[in-house]
Amino acid sequence: MKYKRILLKLSGESLMGSRQFGIEQSAVEHYAAEIKSAVEAGAQVAIVIGGGNIFRGIQATANGVDRVQGDYMGMLATIINSMALQSALERMGIPTRLMSAIEMNEICEPFIRRRAVRHLEKGRVVIFGAGTGNPYFTTDTAASLRAIEIEANVILKGTRVDGIYTSDPEKNKNAKRFDRISFDKAYKMGLQIMDLTAFTLCKENKLPIIVFNINKKGNLKSLLKNKKIGTLVDN
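^ that's the sequence the OP posted. Answer follows.
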């Protein structure tokens, strides 16, 4: 297996499935099944999920909500998504720990780096909720930061497209897909892979990113077995 310890980044919108808002159970169960297959293949799996299916702080700011307050509300949305995924994983028999950057002792553990690594070493899936615990930072940045802290081998960004293209493939049929691209080239081309803070963290710490289609059954396990799936971003 090429990647022993991974951090899987999922958007909150991915949990909506066919809905316009909230959580669709079939979508959660699909992701849980994919994660289960990765665990059973021998990978140590950490996860960060966004909260955009429930609340986006930056959008709320446009409607008059204070930015800091809005961002904290968004962090709470990520906890709701994380709890939904944790529940689905545990129903499938996968031991899971939810760790939050904001203390919520009744529903999750506080994030402690050494404890997170220990959970991973024991074969538990670890979900990191509430972003970084700070306003003005996205869950992309949280994913990069946590991946570096736990010494993950790679960030796997699960999306609905099969990699990185020269432009949006859903809007431009002539868009070309990259099998591999450097951080510098992606930046120069203005490709929106992750936000700039997250992207810079990965580049400076030599942490590769793979963007792939997680909606296709079996893709995550195949990727871990070194099949050429998605687009690799590295130095």
